[in-house]
Amino acid sequence: MEKLNPVKVGTLGFQHVLAMYAGAVIVPLIVGPAIGLNAQQLAYLISIDLFTCGIATLLQVVGGKHFGIKLPVILGCTFTAVGPMIAIGQLQGITAIYGAIIVSGIIVMILSQFMSKIMRFFPPVVTGSVVTIIGVSLIPVAMNNAAGGLGSPDFGSPQNLFLACFTLILIILMNRFFKGYMRAISVLLSLVAGTIAAYFMGMVSFTDVANASWFHIVQPFYFGIPTFNVSAILMMTLVAIVSMIESTGVFLALGDICDRKLESKDIKKGLRAEGLAVIIGGIFNAFPYTSFSQNVGLVALTKVKTRNVVISAGVILMILGLLPKVAALTTIIPTAVLGGAMIPMFGMVISSGVRMLSAVDFSKNENLLIIACSVGIGLGSAVVPAIFGSLPTSIRLLVENGIVLGSVTAILLNVVFNYKDLNISKNDQVNQLNSDHSIDLI
Length: 442
Prior knowledge:
Organism: Cytobacillus depressus
Keywords: Cell membrane, Membrane, Transmembrane, Transmembrane helix, Transport
Number of strands: 2
Number of domains: 1
InterPro entries: NCS2 (IPR006043), UacT-like (IPR017588), Xan_ur_permease (IPR006042)
Order of helices and strands: HHEHHHHHHHHHHEHHHHHHHH
Subcellular location: Cell membrane
GO cellular component, one term: plasma membrane
Largest sheet: 2 strands, antiparallel
């Protein structure tokens, strides 16, 4: 392989940042307004998100004796956490989000030692059902934003619908006519193009960018001391376990690309680093982090497998996180433009769930019943939460959340119907993960 000079390393690292940037900033852009953050708080949330993405990536890539997979992998916000975080924030406040994130990170670090035993309770019929429920529950968020944001005076206006459709069509066209890297950044380019179109329509203001400072110091617990709620912790732990399984697949795929055979201890160190990254995200009031498959796709595309490139990407992310004007520039994206991008992005979450379910043996009526009941109960709870209105508050907080109720239903029914399959060997589980995993370039 050609020896890379510092300029090439930095350029290739910036390419990794571009590939994951939309996925990184879209999470705070969705979650922040949904839980009532103002423009200044949202800008800080984006900044700290980028900063901790960099920390999490360096922790995974550089690692240490007990932490890190030490492969060229980028860590970013897990998209499956968006719905749960919004639900927690709206019901219990933003501090409950971070309390749940911190505890879930600790649980991930503990479970990393027993991953082979945990995985048997999360076969594709369970993980596919959980991810499908999460994706479907996010679609109303996307549609409300495409209309201009719930409660906005111009909700459903032709201008908002035009911008949403324009952004969505651009994403579709770029994925139809481009391949590789251009396809990987299609969402980012479409958000930029949609914002430019909105500017010429008089719907973009740079006031927040002008008022933002050039540099700031990040601080832990910016939004307050975390609070701990059982239902919130349970919800984020379920998301974390799904992310652990997905990350294991990413590690195995990346190991193949980099011609490195991974052992059980490597997977444990990678998951342990991911758990620590989640804790750091909670402490700095950012987000839970997981391995980004789009960057694995970029490694496969460019054939550049050196860790130095991803280390430079981590440093770039940390620098961007210290520049509030960069974050404020992101907040000018109109809600309708974001909504247009959310539709395919949230739809991809549903697609991921369906892809997981494609590995399920549908000839077994038991599996059909697990999917039917878990998805049905999960969505039913989300659509008609009033059904539990007469229950005590402590119980309602658990059952009114469709993601928690649907996930627990899937896990319990899998134990009831497929208890014989819970004795599957560790090697069979790892082999199945490796064969089922595919890399997304979107």
